[in-house]
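Dear U.,

For the methods section draft, I wanted the exact inputs and outputs in one place so we can describe them consistently. I've listed the two proteins in the order they'll appear in the manuscript figures. Please don't edit the token lines directly; just add comments below if something needs changing.

First protein:
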Amino acid sequence: MALKITLHHGKVGSKPVHRANLEALGLRKIGQTVTKQDNAAVRGQILKVAHLVTVEEVAGE
């Protein structure tokens, strides 16, 4: 299973740890979407920036 992660708020003014997590996830621009494998490391990164992103589960990838 995979996760579809979309950045819906900007990272300006957020903490450096949050900005680093967004960069590690591959999110740079508002509205940008990436697909990542569902594992513990990615889930932990998403929890740090949950207020900035939306997450959907994608089956079959």
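Second protein (the one for the lower panel):
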Amino acid sequence: MVKPKYKRVLIKLSGEALAGERGVGIDLPTVQKMAKEIQEVHAEGIDIALVIGGGNLWRGEPAAKAGMDRVSADYTGMLGTVMNALVMADSLKQYGVETRVQTAINMQQLAEPYIRGRALRHLEKNRIVIFAAGTGSPYFSTDTTAALRAVEIEADAILMAKNGVDGVYNDDPRKNADAIKFDELTHIEVLKQGLKIMDSTASSLSMDNDIDLVVFNLNQPGNIKRVVYGEPIGTTVSNKHQQ
């Protein structure tokens, strides 16, 4: 029997992934399809936590550039991540998966506050936990949230599920047909080469805490399971070969 490479993972989904072909908003059939795939992996005994971006509903940085106060713009984005988390939680529950949403901003009527001990207990009880509202502070991305929460729940890896992107390249493959895909990278190489997988704060957190990062295409059915079982798809970023 093949053993999984990762027993506990944090899956980072972009908000745009929830929009499907529409590009903006939330497309329920798309969310349900993702929830079904996550449920199938969870049924294998894998501990799963989720962080979902809010880019399908709001982006703080462009709003700030357009003249909005950056702190207010970022808090608005955090509310978008809560909306996405609640929709995903409902879809997972439809497939029989016990799910809890924890928010970094107190919203008692909607979700639990983020408490590390409680999150760990949920995972021990075979529940999926969705972390919403970012870190609770402006200027920090959901990438940083994913890295921070992965460290806090002692995850083995962060799975960066991308929309139509099958890994990390040295250039944009949609613009450059000669772009080269990396199968493996070290965290330090990502930082030195300025590869925009996640922001530098998130990359540094992952490197310092020795957490693998796997970038792969979410749109290919079964890819989450393939990554969990160690199939060589996408790009794996780790501390391997680092001196």
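Candidate sentences for the figure legend, describing the second protein: The CA atoms of residues 208 and 239 lie 9 Å apart. Helices lie at 28-42, 60-65, 70-94, 116-124, 142-152, 187-193, 200-208, 223-228.

Thanks,
Y.
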